[in-house]
Write a structure and sequence with these properties.
Oligomer: single chain
Largest sheet: 8 strands, mixed
CATH architecture: 3-Layer(aba) Sandwich
Number of domains: 1
Radius of gyration: 16 Å
CATH topology: Rossmann fold
Strand order of the largest sheet: 1-10-9-2-3-7-4-8
């Protein structure tokens, strides 16, 4: 595990997780592709957003490397919920909560103005309930997406890490993007392992984590 700790590793997350021992991670927090062929205004895309072949293998490995009685928090695309939920249940996860972040703006407009993000809280076994559970409706801080087309705010992730893991715990994000989970974990006093397949976003996450470490040390 040591080569993966407190850094981002470039490569396919399923293959990389297979190198990890069973039950070595305290919490998984991840924002995988939504299967919607997303393209932002500048033309940026997300690898494997056009197929769902990776869903079961990736979440199977996440379930395996999580410790007994622990949690996985997974963002998802609501229009493909049936595919995500079927895979989560087949892997052994049970949904125990759901989060909605309310945006003060519309990220896109179709049949509705799309003004929220959502994630499921999934349980492996029977995790302890937090002493102070976070609310399931939360505010959203717009990042501007400078490093990734769907860059998540650290402010949205840190409260979840604090609620569902203990100080010093290891937080895994197999779809790391620009590294927001790593920054949030470090800010919360946790360790982390990040995997990212797309070389563009891996490099962005690597540079961001290095800059954050320098800021922390100053």
């Amino acid at each position: 595990m040591l080569p993966f700790l407190d850094t981002v590793t470039h490569g396919d997350c399923t293959a990389l997780m297979r190198e990890l021992p069973d039950a070595c991670v305290d919490l998984a927090l991840t924002d995988p592709p939504y299967l919607v062929r997303y393209r932002d205004r500048s033309g940026r895309t997300i690898m494997n957003d056009d197929n769902g072949r990776w869903i079961f293998p990736a979440f199977f490995e996440m379930h395996r490397v999580l410790k007994p009685d622990s949690c996985c928090i997974a963002f998802y695309g609501w229009s493909k919920l049936d595919r995500f939920m079927a895979a989560w249940r087949e892997c052994g996860f049970a949904p125990v909560g759901h989060f909605t972040w309310v945006k003060p703006y519309a990220s896109s407009t179709g049949f509705t103005e799309m003004r929220h993000e959502c994630a499921y809280l999934l349980a492996k076994g029977r995790p302890r309930k937090p002493v102070t559970p976070p609310p399931d409706v939360l505010p959203w801080e717009y990042t501007g997406n400078p490093l990734h087309p769907t860059q998540k705010p650290v402010s949205a992730l840190k409260p979840l890490i604090e609620a569902y893991s203990q100080p010093g715990a290891i937080v895994l994000d197999p779809f790391a993007g620009s590294g927001s989970t790593g920054i949030a974990a470090r800010n919360a006093g946790r360790r982390f392992m990040l995997f990212e397949k797309d070389a563009r976003y891996y490099q962005a996450a690597k540079e961001r984590l290095a800059a954050h470490a320098l800021t922390d040390a100053a």
